[in-house]
Amino acid sequence: MPTDATATLLVACPDREGVIAAVATALAEANRNILDADQHADPVDGRFFMRVAFQASATETDDQRAELAARIDRVATQLAMTTRLRWPAVRRRMAILCSKQTHCVADLLWRHSIGELDADVTRVISNHADAEPLADGFGHNYERLPITPETKLEQEARIVELLEADATDLVVLARYMQVLSPALVDRFAGRIINIHHSFLPAFAGAKPYHQAFEKGVKLIGATAHYVTADLDEGPIIAQQTRHVTHRDTVEDLVRKGRDLERVTLAEAVRLHLEDRVIVDGAKTIVFE
């Protein structure tokens, strides 16, 4: 997890000679020490990706940070880079949405309570009351917003109102069993993570465990991905699988899958919060 003395820079650009040197020089000229660097060159698309963690100070001035940002911007312009820079002590603000099943939200709140997730939980939002004792127990705001087909637009408008009032940086769908509207997805593009209870692209949509049982699969899985307007087709961040057998019922698959879902979702949230994910079209580059 990033410390108060670590800033992070993500880079995506066309692959060419000198990219690493240009970034390293910009940091060195600003008297910044590189603590960790990882990179990937895609030989098919000719794209280059890099994550750099470098020494910074939580007490440095805005002018000092602006000067370094300007250096990076100049390099980015020269090399057609897309960059994202995060300074130390800037914590993300995370909202969690859930429905009746609580295993994923419970796991996230517990991990947050022990310091595993570097974010502030602004509130838990649900269309049911099941997770309210959990939120109360961990000391977080809980907003119950019941939904019917007739009130869906009104309920979603209230969700947006709460997210914006809280200055939310990340929205986590912890088994929130509602399809978000394209308008909401666009408003928080690249900032909504969903957990789907199958090894996508297999068994997208409703009741994936039932679909898996009907096909007699020998593996079940869970997939955490960014949400797009296309259901269950957003860029994948993390996946896990588990062996199953012909003896397993649908109920067995659901029980075994719950562990996969909570661990996979937590991993994806951590990777996002630590700036280890770069989205490249329909895919992601994940620097673990």
Characterize the structure shown.
- By secondary structure, the protein is of the alpha/beta class.
- It has two domains: 6-86, 2-Layer Sandwich (Alpha-Beta Plaits), CATH 3.30.70.260; 92-286, Rossmann fold, CATH 3.40.50.170.
- 34% of the residues lie in helices and 29% in strands.
- Strands 7-6-5-8-9-10-11 form a seven-stranded mixed β-sheet.
- The protein is globular and about 60 Å long.
CATH class of the largest domain: Alpha Beta
Low-confidence stretches: none
Number of helices: 8
Range of helix content: 25-40%
N- to C-terminal distance: 11 Å
Overall geometry comes to globular
CATH homologous superfamily label of the largest domain: Formyl transferase, N-terminal domain
What number of domains? 2
Helices and strands, with pairings:
Blueprint (H helix, E strand, L loop, with lengths): L5 E9 L4 H11 L4 E9 L4 E9 L6 H18 L2 E5 L5 E7 L4 H11 L5 E8 L5 H6 L4 E3 L7 H14 L4 E4 L8 H6 L4 E5 L11 H8 L3 E8 L9 E8 L6 H24 L3 E4 L2 E4 L2
Parallel strand pairs: 5-6, 5-8, 6-7, 8-9
Antiparallel strand pairs: 1-3, 1-4, 2-3, 9-10, 10-11, 12-13
Question: Which descriptors apply to this entry?
Answer:
Alpha-Beta Plaits; alpha/beta; 288 residues; Rossmann fold; globular
Summarize, please.
The chain folds into 2 domains: 6-86, Alpha-Beta Plaits (2-Layer Sandwich); 92-286, 3-Layer(aba) Sandwich (Rossmann fold). The strands form 3 sheets. The protein has a 7-stranded mixed sheet with strand order 7-6-5-8-9-10-11.
